[in-house]
Structure formats: structure tokens, C-alpha cells
Design goal:
- This protein has 308 residues and is an alpha/beta fold.
- 41% of the residues lie in helices and 20% in strands.
- It contains 10 helices and 10 strands.
- The protein has helices spanning 2-33, 93-100, 123-129, 144-149, 157-166, 170-175, 193-207, 223-240, 274-280, 283-298, and strands spanning 54-64, 67-77, 82-86, 108-113, 116-117, 130-133, 211-215, 243-247, 259-264, 267-272.
- Helix 8 (223-240) links the parallel strand 7 and strand 8 (243-247).
- The longest helix is centred in the first third of the chain and has 32 residues, at 2-33.
- The structure holds adenosine-5'-triphosphate.
- This is Iron-sulfur clusters transporter ATM1, mitochondrial.
- It comes from Candolleomyces aberdarensis.
- Homodimer.
Length: 308
């Protein structure tokens, strides 16, 4: 009996762990998926990546037929370039990612990655190619090491640590009494919004996909930490020639983008570099002016959330 119970106990532990992981993956999918993903076409092929260029062509989309989000959205992100999408709240910035990840299909028009219509490729290969740092990242009731490892399940501890270093959160983790073994998530240690965002960035850097999507990924950070993190992210993206899309309310995070797309009421109203858009004195210019005057008032109050 003793001989038998040992392996059974062991199996029990593995089983419980597997169940927990599956459960967590389910939670993740439920949180992220929002609805049933469209199925693959019978002849769908894996996405063949050639640098990760993105093209939206005359895309129309509505969550509800009586309220169109996009009527005719077209834009292009060349392979290896950094594009920022800005615009008033609710104009459809996050929806761009939901369409790109195929949570929904456009009602009209097409989306291409490296020339391939994304509705024609295998969903799994599409999602493997894209990494996202969403507005609010789910953390699981597990330790920090596991939480970051969700980016790539076969990553070693050293690779996880390397990712957290790049995401400027390694030193913060090290200072915790249990370090990387600190339990986070619903019943775990309460961590700040900024720490959570940096763990989410570490997760996506570990995944290291061809295309990265940052949806307000640094909004909870103070100006200094945000600046440091953006500098790291930018140099990594450049070094690896990754294609990226940034959504940001704080325009100072998009100043260096190769191109800024300004959305309003579901359409691109302006696009260009920061300097070009300032010169154009349109919507971007007025958003910039407005933020600059707000920041002048708010900045001295900020509490630095820095890695020291
Ligand atoms: P913000 O800057 O405030 O994050 P956004 O520009 O990213 O906004 P989206 O999240 O893309 O905007 O949403 C665009 C519009 O679609 C909003 O009016 C939103 O209320 C609506 N919307 C978003 N998700 C859904 C959904 N699942 N079902 C119905 N309407 C939705």
C-alpha cells in the first residue's frame, strides 16, 4: 500500500497542478476572449510571417448594428515600425486590437498581416504572432515567476528574470520578502497598478512576438518610470525590428513613433509624425496643447514609482 500511495500522491499533486493551470488558462481566455472566436476556414493555412506588416483596408465594424464603430478605416503599419493610435475616449482604439486578434471579424473590408487576409489564416498562428499588453492585465493566484511565465510557458527562470529586468520591475520584485515566489492575483499580495503593468510588459517581452500591441500599457506609471520603461521598450523593438502599435492617452509616450494615427468617430482624421501633426495644427495639435497645459499643473504632484 505504501509503495502504491507514494506515486498516487505524486500523481495527485501533478493532477491538481494541471487542473489549476487549465483553470487559469480558462479564466484567461474568458477574460480576454469576450466572445466566441470565429472558427478557422477549412483550408486555412498558418500565417507566414515576413516582418509583421499590418494593413487595415476599408474596415467597417460595429458591436451593435445601430452603432457603427468604424465605417471605413484604412491604415498601414510597415514591418518593424512603431505606430501610435490616439483619439478621444471610445473612438475605437482598443477595438483595433480586438479585430487584429480576431475576437471579431469586420463586417466589411479586410485586415492583412504580411499580405495575408487574417480571416484566411489559422487563428492559433495569428495569435502566436501578436503579443498584447492590455489595459488591465489579469494576474493569477500564483507566484510572480509563474505569472510572468504565462508569456511563454517553456521559458527558464533566467529568461523570466531577464524579461522583468527589461520591464523595469526586477528590482522591485527582488525587494519583496519572498521575491519571485510572492503570491499575487486575487488572494495574493496587493501590488500597485504600475507594478502590474510592468509584469504585463515582462510577460509580452518573454513571448517576444513579431507584432506587439500596447494598450495604455504604461498609464498607471509616474512620468519618470514611464519614460524609463518606454526607453527600454523602444530600444528592444528597434533592436529586434518588431512591429508595434501603441495606444496612449498621454501623448508624450508617442512622440517618437514612426507614425501617429489620429482617430475620430471611427475614421483616420490625421496621420503623420509628431512634428508633422503639430505643424498641421489639427486635432492632434489641440490634444497636445491641452495635455501640455494639464501636465504643467499636475507634474509637481507626481510620486515617483521608480526602480532604485
Ligand atoms: P478608451 O480610450 O476609453 O479606452 P477606445 O477608443 O479604446 O476607448 P474601444 O474600447 O475600442 O474605445 O470602444 C469603442 C466603442 O465601442 C465604445 O463606445 C465602447 O463602449 C464600445 N464597445 C467596446 N467593447 C464593446 C463590446 N464588447 N460590446 C459593445 N460595445 C463595445
Amino acid at each position: 500500500i505504501f509503495q502504491l500511495s507514494l506515486p498516487l500522491n505524486f500523481l495527485g499533486t501533478i493532477y491538481r497542478e494541471m487542473r489549476q493551470n487549465l483553470l487559469d488558462m480558462e479564466v484567461l481566455y474568458k477574460l480576454v476572449e469576450e466572445n466566441q472566436a470565429p472558427k478557422d476556414l477549412p483550408d486555412a493555412k498558418p500565417l507566414a510571417l515576413q516582418g509583421g506588416s499590418i494593413r487595415f483596408e476599408n474596415v467597417a465594424f460595429a458591436y451593435h448594428p445601430d452603432r457603427p464603430i468604424f465605417r471605413n478605416l484604412s491604415f498601414e503599419v510597415p514591418a518593424g515600425k512603431k505606430v501610435a493610435v490616439v483619439g478621444p475616449s471610445g473612438c475605437g482604439k482598443s477595438t483595433i486590437f480586438r479585430l487584429l486578434f480576431r475576437f471579431y471579424n469586420p463586417s466589411f473590408g479586410q485586415i492583412f498581416i504580411d499580405g495575408q487576409d487574417i480571416t484566411q489564416v489559422q487563428l492559433e498562428s495569428l495569435r502566436k504572432a501578436i503579443g498584447v499588453v492590455p489595459q488591465d492585465t489579469p494576474l493569477f493566484h500564483q507566484d510572480i515567476m509563474h505569472n510572468v511565465r504565462y508569456g511563454r510557458l517553456d521559458a527558464t527562470d533566467a529568461e523570466v528574470v531577464e524579461a522583468t529586468r527589461k520591464a523595469n520591475v526586477h528590482r522591485t520584485i527582488e525587494k519583496l520578502p519572498l521575491g519571485y515566489k510572492t503570491q499575487v492575483g486575487e488572494r495574493g499580495l496587493m501590488i500597485s497598478g504600475g507594478e502590474k503593468q510592468r509584469l504585463a510588459v515582462a510577460r509580452v517581452l518573454l513571448k517576444d512576438p513579431e507584432i506587439l500591441f500596447f494598450d495604455e500599457a504604461t498609464s498607471a506609471l509616474d512620468a519618470h518610470t514611464e519614460h524609463e520603461l518606454m526607453r527600454n521598450i523602444n530600444s528592444l523593438l528597434l533592436e529586434k525590428a518588431r512591429t508595434s502599435i501603441f495606444i496612449a492617452h498621454r501623448l508624450r509616450t508617442v512622440v517618437e513613433a514612426d507614425m501617429i494615427i489620429v482617430l475620430k468617430e471611427g475614421e483616420v482624421v490625421e496621420q503623420g509624425t509628431h512634428e508633422e501633426l503639430l505643424r498641421a495644427k489639427g486635432l492632434y495639435y489641440s490634444m497636445w496643447q491641452q495635455q501640455a497645459s494639464l501636465e504643467a499643473v499636475v507634474a509637481p504632484e507626481e510620486e515617483p514609482d521608480v526602480e532604485v
